[in-house]
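Morning run. Coffee first, then this:
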Amino acid sequence: MVQINQIKRIRDAINGVLLLDKPIGFSSNDALIKTKRLLNAKKGGHTGTLDPFATGLLPLCFGEATKFSHDLLEADKTYEATVHLGITTETGDTEGAVLQTLPVAINLDQINVVLAQFRGPIAQVPPMYSALKRGGKPLYEYARAGITLEREARHVVIHELTLLSYEAPFLHLRVSCSKGTYIRVLGEDIGHALGCGAHLNALRRTHVGSLKLEDAMTLEALQDLQPEQRISLLAPVDALLSDFEAIQLTDELAGRFLHGQRLSLQKEVADLVQPIPLKLGRLRVYRLSDGKLLGSGMLQEYQVLAPERLISTSG
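And here it is:
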């Protein structure tokens, strides 16, 4: 018997962010695995799940960028959604069995009145077909077994809810919302308020924080490129931190920051090359001599800069 030893593929230590236009039919993890292989990347992660039936912006983080992926989980998102009035489904989207069909006799005035009810802070009950866990199991496992559990309503914020068009029975909406918002549930709730029921027919994510779909690449286009061209598409790690103010530290202060030391900027002001940011909160921190990102820090009271997430600056 001949034993064949498989040689493990050596992956590259790639750092950066790729904005992917996720295709329909792919889970977020499937899209990540495919992209990771195309880049031959050692370490990668996605920044918030898009359902398989949804398309659009899926930021993928590689290497050191994975340390900051949580920031995009917390970020506001914008979607374009198509709500199919008159039909409800088990899952609230096109992937579930039809539960009920009702006539749709809705005019624009009625739609505008109902949409106004869903702008601003609202409460949403998470769907049973979701990855939220109860007793160590995701809710969708209970749902598939025919079990419905009580779920506590969550408070989310709908920053924008714009009617793009109405072509009965389809509502085309643009939704900008806070983290944790279920667009499926929003569509169902709008249908319920209109008295005819609804499910989500299509969903496309266009923004995650300050990142835009226009800058994204499809999997097909990525496959057509040479390996070095794919790497050139990666945005730098600090693309995830662009909403935060920046501060530059001298080599001496940078060394202390990278060792996890808190810096009293009021005491070190003579060594800074810029005014201390006035606003307390998170900062992106750079080393002045080479412009390298050191990580993120929290500017606290009395102008104390506390290290938060640090990245490797080797190489």
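Residues 28-39 form the longest helix (12 residues). Good start to the day.
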